[in-house]
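Regression test case RT-17, inverse folding.

Input:
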């Protein structure tokens, strides 16, 4: 409601006093007339002694307005009322009380109100009660206590008032009602006096005009406003309302002609509002160029705006082709969820398209497409969103949107173009996961559809291979081969089928599929990344090696030495060693030695193995001296080689073969010094034999006893017992042997039963009868809890449970094996226990312990890498960031690791660096991962690059990295959605509320991952709140006020 001038500004207090005196004079004369007979009987000189003299003097003073002088005389009259004649005493008393109260009201005395209210309650004189109520109402009115005045004006009525007082009372009561917003009560009062030319003519018309305006009675409002428009008190206010009435009467020309002279003067109280009215009038007449300056000036001068104000100004800019300003206006309406908001977003999309801002146009059409106030705009916006997604490279969004569009709008004028875009998408998308879902319902009748299906199933299969889901990948490769439209892709599918078979331990299938790959393309097989001819020959070599077809393996490893691709040299180096191994297995020691020499000379990873093998060949070919020299050279050249223990043991065996027992002993001791070395029990047994041959019987007994006590469950323990028996018996000490047997828990009489019971379980296990093996081995352990085969029994029980997928029981028995001394079963048990703890139980602390054991026990490169990977992943799951850095470095520094291991190492190293706020280093390592793979780790790395840049407030690079996730790894929904949320945060930080809201809303609407929907929704609410806090647009509540 506009501010209104107060009634006190219009009517002077002195005027009120004169009107009071005139009305009271009439009443006093009437009262005097009534008491004249009572005093006419006295003498003229007695008037001064008569009690009524003071009363008469008080009346005269009251009529003169001398209320302070009159009031004490009226009080005296009341006190001396007994002196008056009985016939008029009561009338005098009522008059004196009445005037006394009136004086109190006029003098604003504290007790005036209470006295007047008491008088009204107690006096039985209706006219006087009404007059008292009237003056009490005026008292309240004078003190601006308008609500309190109303009931007394109503009680007073108008019957006892003069015409002037009636006009004044109606105006004042009407004003009270007006201020209480009781316009229906105020209107008839103002109406009754607005046509009478007195002091209330102008203000009555002013307020009547407002009430008529409020009630949309525009003719009456206009008449009253025109009566007062030239009055100085109203001429700065009323012209605006007259112009607005012309607007409501649909008289646009009248609005403009009437308003413009006033705008030219620039003095109106509502000058800015009048500019708005003129601008809006021109706008509705579609005269946008004329409307524009008025709306611009209004917007500049207004504190806040309505959404309609913003729209109209933006639309004028749009019509005048001032698109940058139109964009700035329409963007502010992105949170308006009504037809105005939808239309604004539609026009905003058009503005962005016309200025080449496709990404922003896509967001605008996304807003528009969510509303259905205008179905045609919604249809076009949905199509444009899909098309722009395609043009901008958001293939997943384009695929989903256009597929849904063709389903919901089959008869649309854009349907044909949408179908054409879909065909291109299927051929070019990298979001194979969603594309596969989409294309599954599309008929495969046309060559293009078959080609797209072949490509999508193949692409998704490769992604699943990278993610380790080999079973599903194999199924998809078979589906890809159902439509062999593209020969190269068909050939590559055979390659990956062979790769999967090899990884799953199926060398027969690997041989078939890999040979299909090599044979399919003649001399030029298709190549794509790891899928190339070199890798194919390499895989075939390993497949034949596992089948013990060494001639075939040899041929393939020879072919695999021809370098192809990024990892070609690494493959060629390993293929050289495997070629040498094949020659070795075929007993072609000359060629094997030649290749081992080549590996040693190159210093490539595995050169320590080559030197070891070269020493073994020397021994096999009868050159013991050279064998010794080469194996001794291994420990000096490669002090950290995992083959040093084997070399020491082989050196000892060579010396013992030549009966050089003294020379053998130091090397046996080196092996024995590491009790966890798998060769330790064998070395101890050989040490006993060496001492025996050196006639050191006590030394031999000591070594054999150590084998039995330290490695009781090893196969060497039985051999040691036999040797001890011979030594003790031959020396005449059978009792000593029996005592030793007892001390180690052995009893001869039970041994046979022990062996037979165990053998039954072992036999079942060997025949893959795992359920039977579990029963028999548990029976053995129950009967012989300390039997000589306890360790292998626990191990085979663990393996049987594992094969039955009873991982809990399997882990129990693997744990038992690992709690004993190192044995032949320890390494396998650590490997299996770590797998169960990590993948099945997700007990990462426990898994870390087992992986650590595996690393210590490992005798193969494969298990060493498995342990290093496991330690790294456990530390990551446990958020042990400092340990992660060390673990990652250990993996990365391991010679000859695969590309996958490098990816894992760099990724976890980067994660640790990010957590420790080492953002620059983390970004470098994440980029390394992103360049090496498009698997989920690649998507995750790209996202974390964005996160690191965001933490550094490098919003440009953070944005680029987020878009990199979306465009280059679209199949990984979690990281794509996370990247969109990151973009929303970036836009928010840039105060780009429009794009922030559009981006976050897209996740809320389309994402199927609850935690990310919640995250996006929470962030969106904060963005909207922040926008409202900084917006000039009034909210709905403010607009309705």
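Golden output:
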């Amino acid at each position: 409601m506009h501010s209104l001038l107060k009634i006190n500004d219009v009517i002077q207090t002195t005027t009120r006093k004169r009107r009071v005196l005139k009305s009271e004079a009439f009443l006093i004369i009437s009262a005097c007339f009534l008491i004249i007979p009572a005093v006419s009987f006295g003498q003229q000189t007695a008037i001064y002694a008569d009690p009524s003299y003071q009363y008469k003097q008080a009346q005269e003073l009251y009529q003169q307005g001398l209320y302070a002088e009159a009031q004490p005389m009226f009080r005296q009259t009341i006190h001396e009322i007994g002196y008056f004649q009985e016939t008029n005493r009561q009338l005098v008393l009522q008059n004196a009380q009445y005037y006394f109260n009136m004086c109190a009201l006029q003098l604003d005395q504290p007790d005036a109100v209470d006295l007047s209210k008491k008088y009204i309650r107690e006096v039985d004189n209706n006219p006087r009660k009404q007059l008292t109520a009237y003056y009490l109402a005026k008292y309240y009115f004078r003190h601006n206590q308008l609500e309190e005045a109303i009931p007394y004006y109503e009680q007073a009525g108008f019957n006892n008032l003069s015409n002037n007082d009636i006009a004044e009372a109606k105006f004042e009561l009407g004003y009270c009602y007006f201020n209480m917003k009781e316009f229906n009560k105020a209107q008839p009062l103002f109406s009754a006096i607005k046509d009478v030319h007195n002091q209330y003519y102008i203000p009555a018309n002013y307020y009547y005009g407002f009430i008529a305006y409020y009630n949309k009675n525009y003719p009456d409002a206009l008449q009253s406003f025109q009566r007062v428009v030239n009055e100085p008190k109203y001429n700065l206010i009323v012209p605006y309302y007259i112009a607005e009435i012309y607007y409501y009467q649909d008289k646009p020309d009248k609005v403009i002609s009437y308003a413009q002279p006033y705008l030219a003067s620039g003095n109106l109280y509502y000058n800015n509002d009048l500019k708005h009215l003129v601008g809006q009038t021109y706008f509705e007449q579609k005269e946008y160029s004329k409307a524009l300056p008025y709306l611009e000036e209004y917007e500049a001068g207004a504190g806040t705006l309505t959404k309609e104000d913003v729209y109209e100004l933006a639309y004028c800019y749009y019509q005048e082709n001032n698109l940058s300003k139109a964009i700035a206006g329409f963007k502010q309406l992105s949170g308006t969820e009504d037809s105005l908001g939808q239309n604004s977003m539609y026009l905003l999309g058009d503005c962005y398209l016309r200025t080449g801002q496709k990404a922003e146009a896509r967001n605008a059409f996304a807003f528009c497409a969510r509303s259905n106030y205008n179905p045609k705009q919604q249809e076009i916006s949905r199509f444009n969103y899909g098309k722009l997604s395609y043009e901008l490279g958001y293939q997943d969004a384009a695929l989903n949107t256009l597929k849904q569009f063709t389903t919901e709008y089959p008869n649309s004028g854009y349907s044909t173009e949408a179908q054409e875009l879909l065909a291109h998408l299927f051929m070019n998308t990298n979001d194979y996961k969603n594309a596969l879902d989409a294309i599954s319902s599309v008929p495969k009748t046309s060559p293009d559809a078959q080609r797209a299906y072949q490509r999508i199933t193949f692409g998704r299969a490769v992604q699943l291979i990278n993610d380790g889901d080999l079973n599903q990948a194999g199924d998809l490769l078979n589906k890809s081969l159902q439509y062999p439209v593209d020969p190269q892709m068909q050939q590559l599918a055979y390659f990956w089928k062979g790769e999967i078979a090899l990884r799953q331990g199926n060398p027969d299938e690997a041989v078939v599929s890999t040979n299909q790959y090599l044979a399919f393309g003649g001399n030029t097989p298709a190549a794509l990344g790891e899928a190339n001819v070199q890798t194919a020959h390499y895989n075939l070599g390993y497949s034949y090696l596992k089948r013990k077809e060494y001639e075939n393996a040899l041929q393939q490893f020879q072919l695999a030495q021809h370098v192809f691709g990024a990892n070609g040299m690494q493959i060629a180096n390993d293929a050289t060693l495997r070629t040498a191994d094949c020659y070795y297995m075929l007993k072609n020691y000359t060629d094997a030695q030649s290749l081992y020499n080549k590996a040693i000379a190159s210093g490539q990873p595995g050169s320590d193995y080559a030197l070891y093998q070269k020493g073994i060949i020397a021994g096999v070919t009868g050159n013991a001296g050279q064998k010794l020299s080469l194996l001794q050279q291994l420990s000096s050249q490669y002090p950290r080689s995992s083959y040093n223990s084997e070399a020491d043991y082989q050196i000892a065996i060579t010396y013992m073969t030549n009966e050089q027992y003294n020379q053998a002993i130091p090397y046996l001791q080196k092996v024995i010094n590491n009790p966890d070395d798998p060769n330790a029990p064998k070395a101890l047994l050989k040490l006993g034999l060496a001492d025996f041959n050196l006639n050191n019987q006590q030394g031999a007994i000591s070594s054999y006893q150590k084998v039995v006590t330290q490695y009781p469950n090893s196969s060497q323990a039985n051999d040691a017992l036999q040797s001890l028996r011979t030594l003790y018996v031959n020396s005449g000490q059978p009792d000593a042997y029996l005592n030793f047997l007892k001390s180690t828990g052995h009893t001869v009489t039970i041994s046979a039963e022990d062996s037979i019971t165990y053998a039954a379980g072992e036999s079942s296990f060997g025949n893959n009868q795992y359920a039977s093996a579990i029963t028999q081995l548990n029976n053995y352990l129950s009967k012989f809890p300390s039997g000589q085969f306890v360790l292998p029994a626990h191990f085979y029980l663990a393996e049987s449970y594992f094969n039955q997928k009873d991982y809990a029981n399997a882990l129990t028995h693997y744990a038992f094996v690992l709690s004993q001394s190192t044995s032949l079963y320890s390494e396998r048990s650590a490997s299996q226990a770590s797998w169960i703890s990590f993948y099945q139980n997700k007990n990462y602390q426990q898994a870390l312990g087992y992986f650590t054991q595996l690393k210590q026990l490992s005798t193969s490169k494969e298990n060493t890498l498995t342990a290093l990977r496991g330690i790294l992943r456990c530390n990551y799951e446990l958020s042990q960031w400092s340990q992660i850095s060390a673990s990652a470095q250990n993996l990365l520094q391991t010679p000859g690791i695969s590309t996958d291991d490098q990816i894992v190492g760099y990724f976890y190293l980067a994660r640790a660096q990010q957590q420790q706020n080492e953002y620059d280093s983390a970004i470098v390592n994440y980029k390394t991962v992103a360049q090496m793979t498009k698997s989920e780790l690649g998507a995750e790395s790209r996202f974390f690059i964005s996160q690191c840049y965001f933490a550094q407030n490098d919003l440009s690079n953070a944005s680029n990295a987020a878009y990199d996730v979306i465009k280059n790894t679209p199949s990984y929904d979690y990281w794509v959605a996370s990247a969109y949320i990151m973009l929303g945060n970036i836009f928010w930080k840039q105060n780009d509320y429009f794009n922030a809201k559009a981006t976050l809303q897209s996740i809320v609407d389309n994402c199927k991952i609850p935690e990310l929907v919640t995250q996006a929704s929470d962030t969106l609410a904060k963005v909207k709140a922040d926008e409202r806090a900084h917006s000039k647009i009034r909210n709905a509540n403010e607009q309705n006020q």
